[in-house]
């Protein structure tokens, strides 16, 4: 049953982001966006927010291209991982199999979405380094005044959102909380979750070219004010602010989108006290007509938001 | 296994609060605290916050006394309810059995904590009235500018917190996220959750007299600013502000406590973006010495916070 | 000397707004925007914010047209009023002379800008009604949880901003804190103040037709969060949100613009802790090229902001 | 006339703070509290907030003792300085005469309060260094995400507040906006301003021993949220948080008090949009009975707030 499968996967764990401007991207994430550096190895930096309990929620990897390397979800238990592996093996999607862990977690089971996005599930994980403790023992690391508290979600692009939805339901047991239904009958976008967060992954329709592209990666802030202050800091640092701060109509999230130096879109977001607690939540369905009203307070979605993704379409 | 049992119960659904000042309490909750009135029957008012998806999260009942009537949790499915009923029947706690529903939900299975708190589990529920829609279809009711977005948690008193913990784990499958360990080896308090919220119920040690007493009931706000503004409104309305706004060391919640006209303590709280996502979260344990530092920013806990509960000790 | 003349005028006192939808406009200002009704006479409503010390800061007047009726500044003393009257009489602008007061203040000296905007200066004034006291005796009226704390500024349109500037300096002793210098050498806009506020009146170039038109009227909020919450309330009330919330590059004000039912543009704004304290402040000059960057965080100014004014151009 | 004299003095310019822990105090102010270092000379650091237009608003000076060195106010013009000097020379207070300037301003006229507080008035001043520009040209220096936007006020102690008030009115032309009237007829405290800020200097009754003691020095933040976030940063840095965040009843300021390493009390404060615009403002008078209600939301004033000052009483 969907609900029980859903409980096998605990939460979005980390995203690997590829950059062809490694030094500049690392400087952005640590000095402007506000993540902490857990470790550096040959070609990757392991980053986390101040209240991420895991060692790494953003693996930033030097690469000839940009976009997303892989997406890792942590499972609810070792037994849950076994159940998920069996389900995925039976489903017919492309399976990469077991992959050695890295600085941040143990071995992981890897598989692909039909659109080339690489996913992994893992149980064994490393915790945030203990040499950076907070004065409050219920906080993962020392609070440093910067906005991102924890990883929030990732938004991927695909040419067939309905097919992507099937993949998410079968492989991760995700449920859909909101979606866009286009006039042509297609799904324009789907927002998924495996827990009480209103979403941990979104898939929206690819309007450019390419496989497995990334739309954006997002961290959560405690307050909306954190995002307003961050906007001023992005301005001072010369970061490209694409759109926001404003409030999404879908999901009601207060948002701000910028591009890190390599062109990957990153967001800061605040959902207030919103959670999906209802076990029988019916997905909210948005029509094209409703989308034409713009964002919650009327901001028109700017063109680049519909077209820009990483890696760039060729 | 605990984890799987935990998944049977979806979330705290509602709390019944008893008042011997029904009219004044109702005026407080609807005109000052900011809840919406879903319905009134003979002796109860059914109230909800603007984003509570259920018809009622606070059942306010006229009574010769104050305190808590019962605490309702909604289960994850009908099958989950059957499993919970079997587990509770087997556990040896006092069972009241099936109870007819009311304006807000279908039939419920009732049972008692060892300290006289009445609990119920239910599946069938009624939704927030549709005649008060929000402009945003993913919001349960029209936003009216008032702080409480949804019900958050309830805090009960008991003479033996360890025993209360056993009750919560067996009957609800709750897990403990934080706790106080006293120098005498007893538990001073336990914070429980059945989902990703950091807590939905707390039990702290009874320092007065009486059985089944309530410490406080809490609704969540979207932002800390909502609580600062509410403090000014409570001041203007002549409401007794007991303590706050300030930040708890335990759970890190930004809080404000007031007494409604009948003396029941109610809180507004904001947890920022904090969630318990780790499936293997180890409870945070606070010592007496750590508690002596006061709240997060040094505020000393005031005396009435340790002694006042409802109904008053006789 | 300019500085000493400047000290003769204490602050912007009130604005008279004309509406051809009196009932709807009054409902908007009292039920959505959040002003208090001090009094009603034949054709006008006298409104104020919760911390305006005067009886009226917005006089809303039923009229066949929209736009601004007059702008009132309060002087620093009776002697200061005499000095100002002498200076204005000597200046050659169109003078209307002494005008009887109304519900809100005593007799006022009236005169016109070269573009037909009617101004008045007055000393005797009435205070906010005493029957609506705050629990805090240093607050003008009872805080009701709504955003506008006090009147902030008004923005007028003129076909020659440099000429308007001369008028403001001579008649009110205003100083310019910021301005736009166009590539053609003209002033695109000027921000004026008579005190430590960074501006109390702005004049921007008229791009439509008509004399004496209003661009917008603004009240100040205590916090930026008040404006975000107001945006949700405007959305729920079906109010036309024109642009924002966002931060102006000029003056750094956090803003939100809506249209009241008759089409007059009204703003909520927050300047944080910004004040102009330097007695020798040099006006900040913005070029066309700098303006092309959009607002502070990159929002492009929308078309209607350049063209819409009241009364509508014919 | 008082009003015109008042206009001679433009604003509080800077405060010299003495520390017997120079390195630790400097680290606190630059790394935790959030000021910028403009310059260092032999024994002093010249500090400013990100939107202070002057080179220095806090002169931190190494000294065998703590407390306040001197308080500098900037005048409105050179002619205004001459008028003030004449008035002070005629008043009979202890005059130190002209004092050479320092890194931050030109020559200053120095004189003493009857309680030994050293004041100076000056016109020529240096601006914030131009090598740290903001992306917004109307902002004095680059925004760095830290709370203090500009210097706000200083609070001094004296054994006779009424006598101190006479001194402020005669020498600076200050006006009183709020005061405490004790049951014994004495003034318990007076809040002064020379401009539209609700206060730039407060004097409260000395309950310890010593002459010319400092109660606290305060910088203003843009938003209340800045203060809540700062509280977490003070906690992480092990700074002694004395009281707050909370809202003062007097002046309505949202506040947070900490002690810098040498024991001088420093505050972060936010007054929202409050300004004193009325030219005929009547001082708000608070009684002892009203003060017993505690701060605005009921917080009891803690004992050290009444007794701790610097230098420590001997």
Give keywords:
homotetramer; 314 residues; alpha/beta; 2,3-Dihydroxybiphenyl 1,2-Dioxygenase, domain 1; 9-stranded mixed beta sheet; 8-stranded mixed beta sheet; disordered N terminus
Characterization of this structure:
The structure is a homotetramer of 314-residue chains. Chain A is an alpha/beta fold. The first copy, chain A, has one domain (2-131, 149-307): 2,3-Dihydroxybiphenyl 1,2-Dioxygenase, domain 1. The first copy, chain A, is 21% helix and 35% strand. Chain A is built from seven helices and 17 strands. The first copy, chain A, has helices at residues 2-6, 22-33, 78-91, 161-171, 224-237, 288-291, 303-307, and strands spanning 9-19, 36-40, 44-48, 58-62, 67-75, 95-99, 108-112, 118-122, 150-158, 175-181, 187-193, 201-205, 214-220, 240-247, 254-259, 265-270, 284-287. In chain A, the strands form two sheets. Chain A has a nine-stranded mixed sheet with strand order 14-15-16-13-9-12-11-10-17. The first copy, chain A, is globular and about 55 Å long. The termini of chain A are far apart. At the B-C interface, helix 5 of B face helix 5 of C.
